[in-house]
Amino acid sequence: MPETSGSSGRTPETHVIDFRAAEQLLNARDPRGAVKLLDGVIAAHPENTAARLLRARAFFASAQLRPAELEFTIVLEREPDNAFAHFALGRTYERQGRHDQAKRHFRLAAALDPNPEYLKAARFDS
């Protein structure tokens, strides 16, 4: 009998499948469906930063900005050099009208990775 995690009867392999399906749902513009799948993955594996980052992106895409902010913050606590997470948190703050906080994270993203999109958002010239 395969080893299961928790009482849900879900196997680690099932969580990988759910993660991949959530990626596909997000790409297909169904962020709420992605969040539903990722909730189970994160409940079973709260330490999984990749799943948290994907869920943060899904929250952002569905305009659930406070949950997105929380997830991006958790990712950055674990990976403070994650340029994408800084950039995405900056976008989240920007959509909330929190421009000073957004600018700080845009600049951190650009300092970590000179991606043209990050540099443009950082507005170093202003």
TrEMBL record:
UniProt xrefs under Pfam families: TPR_19 (PF14559), TPR_2 (PF07719)
The keyword Signal belongs to this UniProt entry's keyword annotation: no
Alphabetized UniProt keyword annotations: Repeat, TPR repeat
SMART domains found in the cross-reference section: TPR
Gene3D superfamilies named in the record: Tetratricopeptide repeat domain
Coiled coil spans: none
Entry superkingdom: Bacteria
TPR repeat windows: 83-116
PROSITE patterns with a match to the protein in the record: TPR
InterPro entries, sorted: TPR-like_helical_dom_sf, TPR_2, TPR_rpt
Name used for this protein in its record: Tetratricopeptide repeat protein
Species this protein is from: Streptomyces brasiliensis
Origin organism lineage: Bacteria, Bacillati, Actinomycetota, Actinomycetes, Kitasatosporales
